[in-house]
Amino acid sequence: MRQNFIIKLINKRPLLFSFIILITLLFVINKVSKIFLEVTKFEKRNNINFIEKVYGKDNAEEYAKVILEQTTTLKYKPFVEFTEHYRSGDFTSVSNFGNRCNQNYINICKEPSGGKEEIWVFGGSTVFGYGVKNDETITSYIEKITKNKFKVINFGSGFYYSTQERILFQNLLIELPSPHAAVFVDGYNDFLKRHNYNETAISEAIRYKINKTSKDDLIDYFKERINRLNFVRLIKEKIFIEKGEKLSIFTPEGILKNSNLLKNNQEINSSIGEHFNVKVLNILQPVPIFHDSYDTSNIPDAFKLVDQDVDFINLKNAYEYFLNNSNHKYLNLSKLKINKPMFVDAVHYSKEFNMAIANEIVNYLDLISNEN
Known about the structure:
- With 372 residues, this protein is an alpha/beta fold.
- It folds into 3 domains: 2-36; 42-196 and 249-371, SGNH hydrolase (Rossmann fold); 203-240, no CATH class.
- The chain has helices spanning 2-12, 14-36, 41-45, 48-55, 60-69, 125-128, 138-145, 162-175, 188-191, 203-211, 214-227, 230-240, 252-275, 310-325, 351-365; strands at residues 74-75, 83-84, 87-88, 93-94, 118-123, 151-154, 181-186, 279-284, 331-332.
C-alpha cells in the first residue's frame, strides 16, 4: 500500500520528488565532506591538544575557555572604525567603551574615567592579551607591580596599529581628563601593514559595504552560504586549490613608508603628551625574529614564524631599518628575552612575557619611585 502511494507520488509530482532526493543527497554529501576537510590553523589553535601543549594539561580547561571568550567579532567605533566587542566572560572582560579589564570573574568591566590616577596603554592584540586571562595582561601586571597606585587601562585591540592608537589617544583627551601616562606598544602591525597607510584593516570592507547595492547584498548572502558548505570547501581545497593573497617581500620604499608612519605617530604622541602634561612612552615591541625566539615556548612548529616566511623577512628587515634610522625617543624592547615561555602562538605573548614587559614599562616611567 505504502509502495503504491510512493509510486503515485512520483508519477504525479516528479519534480517535487526529484527536488527532495536532491536535497537529501546534498545533505549527506555535505556531512561526509566534513570528514575529509583539512583542519585549519585557527581550528588547530582551538584544539585541546594545542592548548595542552602550550599551557599544560592542568591548565587546559581554563585556557580553552579563554580562547573561546576571545573568539568574537569586532565592534564599530567612531574615527578608528572598530574596537574590541563587549564581553563579560570569566577570563575576558571588555567594557562597552572597548577597554579590557584587569581582573577575572568580574560582573562589570568599568570604563575609564581619566585623571592622574590612570595610565592608558595602547596597542594591538598583544596588548589586549590574546591567549591570556584578564589578570595576565601587560596592564594587569603594571597595576600589580605598582601595588595598584594607578588604574591601568587596556586600550589594546586586535589589528590596531599606530595611527588608530594616535587618533584614539587624541579623542580620549577630548572626552576625559588627561592621564598620568600613555604607553604605546607597536611594531608588528605597523611593519606588516599591507593596506594603505591611511586606512585600517577593515577600511576596504567598510567601503565596499557602503557602496554596494541591495542586489549586491542578496548575491553576497547566497555566495556566503554556498561557500560555507562543506562539500564546496572540499572541492576548492582538493580540486581547485583556491589561491589566497600572495604575500610578497616589501621593497625598500615600502619599509621606509611603514617605518616613517610609526616614527611620525610616535613623535606626534610625544608632542601631544607634552602639551597635556602626560608622560608618553613609545615602545618598539618584541617580535619573534631571532633564531632562539621560540626556544622557551611550547608552540607546535606549524605556528612558528621561520626565516623562510615572508612575514619573518619583512619584520626583520623593518626592525633593522627602524633601529638604524630612527633617532627619536622610544624604548626598544625588540631584544627582550626571558628564560620562561615567551609566546602562546606565533606572535602573542605569554603571561610571563607580559610581566617582563610590564616591569620594563614601570622602570622606564619610574612609577614606583614616584610614591616618595
